[in-house]
């Protein structure tokens, strides 16, 4: 899933509250600054921030021209992260992402190899149109997203901390694309659907981005402060009721679990990593909204971005025109008791 591990230290309730209040102030400022650059995509901004606050990676899916690239650039600036960008193309090689060894020669004629780091050595990596590259190149990201290091010529090279990948994928123009394998999709904490803006937001885009000056993001926090907030999120308490809701939702999405809707329409469902993702994301969402503990509503609100890329529809569902959103909607409705 690509979640960075942090050491656990006991915190008193008073210390937890004080740390949470401080984090709330920083998160509010981050939201404000990103919102001054990205218009009308509140849900997308929220989920992208949640993915980073929870310590994971995000996959942004949407048609071209919806400011996905601009959003990632703004997040990198506002969060104080060293950013890198890779435009994925069919001829992109793994070494173009990870880096390569080159031979150096000193004044005495002595030769040695030196590792030249690729763009993956950034705290926030933008992987643009990730499904345009070959499976071999896509898999070059796999170890990095999960293990937070890459291996070149048998040598381990650790990535910066924090390290996050925000990848974009175009749902259209499927010719010349290579669908991401299930193992790589599962490394993304959330799939974030980027839709068209509302009328008022699009009007603001037209008036504010076509003049002589364009709003620019400014740093609000640092990468070190982000890591502190990520550690705080991992310490937030989760009640048994919320844990039970996560387990019930994830298990109901698996065929053979007793859910008739799932059995009819799903060929395979989410594994335990989906439950881990929900545990972290519900904590991050609670803090994002000013609460010290997640609720069942947080779990259900995050069902779509956490589950949709970890499930597959069967032939019968596709023949009936059933979408993954329809299936998850029914699971959420059942969890609510509707």
From TrEMBL:
Gene3D superfamilies: Magnesium chelatase subunit I, C-Terminal domain, P-loop containing nucleotide triphosphate hydrolases
Coiled-coil boundaries: none
One protein family per Pfam: AAA_lid_2
Single Gene Ontology MF annotation: ATP hydrolysis activity
InterPro entries cross-referenced by the UniProt entry: AAA+_ATPase, ATPase_AAA-3, CbbQ/NirQ/NorQ/GpvN, ChlI/MoxR_AAA_lid, P-loop_NTPase
CDD domains named among the record's database cross-references: AAA
Residues of the AAA+ ATPase domain: 54-198
PANTHER family tied to this protein: MAGNESIUM-CHELATASE SUBUNIT CHLD (PTHR42759:SF1), MOXR FAMILY PROTEIN (PTHR42759)
Protein name from the UniProt record: MoxR family ATPase
Taxonomic lineage: Bacteria, Pseudomonadati, Pseudomonadota, Alphaproteobacteria, Hyphomicrobiales
């Amino acid at each position: 899933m690509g979640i960075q591990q942090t050491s656990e230290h006991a915190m008193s309730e008073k210390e937890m509250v004080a740390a949470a209040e401080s984090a709330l102030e920083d998160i509010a400022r981050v939201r404000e600054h990103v919102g001054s650059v990205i218009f009308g995509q509140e849900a997308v901004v929220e989920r992208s921030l949640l993915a980073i606050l929870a310590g994971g990676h995000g996959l942004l899916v949407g048609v071209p021209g919806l400011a996905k690239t601009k959003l990632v650039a703004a997040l990198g600036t506002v969060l104080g992260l060293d950013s890198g960008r890779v435009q994925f193309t069919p001829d992109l090689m793994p070494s173009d992402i990870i880096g390569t060894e080159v031979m150096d020669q000193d004044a005495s004629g002595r030769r040695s190899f030196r590792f030249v780091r690729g763009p993956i050595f950034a705290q926030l990596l933008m992987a643009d149109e990730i499904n345009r590259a070959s499976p071999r190149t896509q898999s070059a990201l796999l170890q990095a997203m999960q293990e937070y290091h890459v291996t070149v010529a048998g040598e381990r090279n650790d990535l910066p901390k924090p390290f996050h990948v925000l990848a974009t994928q175009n749902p259209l123009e499927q010719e010349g694309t290579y669908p991401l394998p299930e193992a790589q999709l599962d490394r993304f904490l959330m799939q974030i659907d980027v839709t068209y803006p509302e009328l008022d937001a699009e009007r603001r885009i037209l008036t504010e981005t076509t003049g002589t000056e364009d709003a620019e993001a400014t740093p609000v926090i640092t990468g070190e402060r982000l890591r502190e907030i990520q550690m705080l999120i991992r310490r937030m308490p989760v009640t048994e009721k919320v844990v039970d809701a996560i387990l019930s939702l994830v298990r109901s999405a698996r065929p053979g679990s007793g859910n008739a809707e799932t059995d009819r329409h799903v060929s395979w469902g989410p594994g335990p990593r989906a439950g881990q993702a929900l545990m972290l994301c519900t904590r991050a969402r609670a803090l994002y909204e000013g609460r010290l503990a997640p609720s069942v509503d947080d779990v259900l609100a995050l069902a779509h971005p956490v589950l949709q890329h970890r499930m597959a529809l069967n032939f019968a569902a596709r023949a009936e025109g059933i979408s993954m959103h329809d299936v998850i909607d029914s699971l959420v409705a059942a969890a609510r008791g509707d």
